[in-house]
Amino acid sequence: MFKQDKEIFNILLGSISEGVIVVDELQNIVETNKSAELMFGYNSKELLNQPLNILIPQNYHAKHGDHFKGFVKDHKQRRMGHGRDIFGAKKDGSIFPLEASLNPFSVYGKNFVMALIVDITERKKLEQEKNHLTKIILESLNEVYVFDAKTLQFINANFGAQKNIGYNLEEIITMTPVDIKPNYTESQFRKELEKLNQKNIEKIEFETVHQRKSGSTYPVNVHLQRSKLGDRDVYVAIILDITEQKNYTEKLEKTVDIRTKELKTALTAEKDLNDLKTKFLSMVSHEFKTPLSGILTSTILLNKYKLTEQQDKREKHIRTINDKVQYLNTILNDFLSVEKLEKGKFNYKFTNFKLSKVLNEVIYNANMILKDGQQINYPENIDDLSMYQDEKILELAISNLIYNAIKYSSENTVIDITISQNESHTTFKIKDNGIGIPKKDQKNIFNRYFRAENALLMQGTGIGLNIAKDHLENLNGTLTFESEEHKGSTFTIELPNKAQL
After folding, report:
1. 201-224: burial string, b at 16+ Cβ within 10 Å, e else
2. In this structure, is residue 225 part of a structural domain?
3. What pTM was computed for the model?
């Protein structure tokens, strides 16, 4: 009968998937099943009559003896591995986690303990991975919320959510997503959630604004998907704070806008420059062609006047040639002056001189080109006025202004010159009653080669005012004007009495 019972017992052991180890009161192994042998890497002959300690890691031996004695004394069924980790030792020395259920029993007056053992290596690995993922989510700086699918009430929120939104978990679980989304009503938010009910849509994404406990707001990108918490339908929301992204985008857009404007300005400037070059070439061609034609005509006519009584006619054409050559010389000097100013090669020469000396020379030359009936009013009380400046530059600037006043005024008009001087500066005013400068052209009047619209048919290069202004500013002076079309212009030079270079 005993033999038959043992065979039945072995059949039962073999059918159990858990490992089974039976030990006596002395902790010697008296029986094992195939699962246990495979689990620990032994065969049955190697384990029988061996002490149980060969299946227990070395560092657990001391405590295990006392635990076993206490268990035998209580003689009650017990599960091990819940609440604390226990390990087994394989034949090759490797250690693995396990759970064991201890079942005491007696046969023929002898006490035994049967241990049902489960290798939980895979379970532990999955738990570790799950715990690791849970820790990552909980500690993530991105906001993660879980809320009920029906009530919308928050169930959980990670550390990142609590930190950024400013509420603690106790406060958050009394709220819903609508409480932190000022741009949404509950009905609007539920309408967003309805998209997840559509077929093949597992996740929705949208941008909105979140409001912190402090009242401040920040832009976010919301990722929403359905999930299950036990048998409860929930939504999981992963929130990305996109403040920096928005700031970068806005900064990039502003930079693009600035660069676009700069490019447009550069293209406009290039177009203006090309127009200016075309205008300049046309102007130079015209300004040189007119006096050269006059010189050529006078030269041809001179050959016809060979008689003594024709001397006055010869002198008239000689004066014409002289005037035209002088005009060409002036134009060339202007161009050379421009080049020197641009390259910074102009050397100023400072001397003490009387203002009357400069003015007398300028008016003497100007009288040669006055139109019929034109008159220059000489300033009073300037005989005692003097300066320490570049005399030639002052003469150039005043000459330019007076010649312009003559050119752009009609016959029988008056040109007034006034000069005043204080302790530091001298002021020159040249007032005419000419055609004036159109208001729309006044901002460009000092630009090189610019000609006002109402002066395009008159001789001129558009260089004189530009040169005069550049020279005067180099000498710490100024050149300004006031003008009204059809009523005339007043140009004002202000220059230090003593050169400050």
Report:
1. eeeeeeebebbeeeeebebbebbb
2. yes
3. 0.41
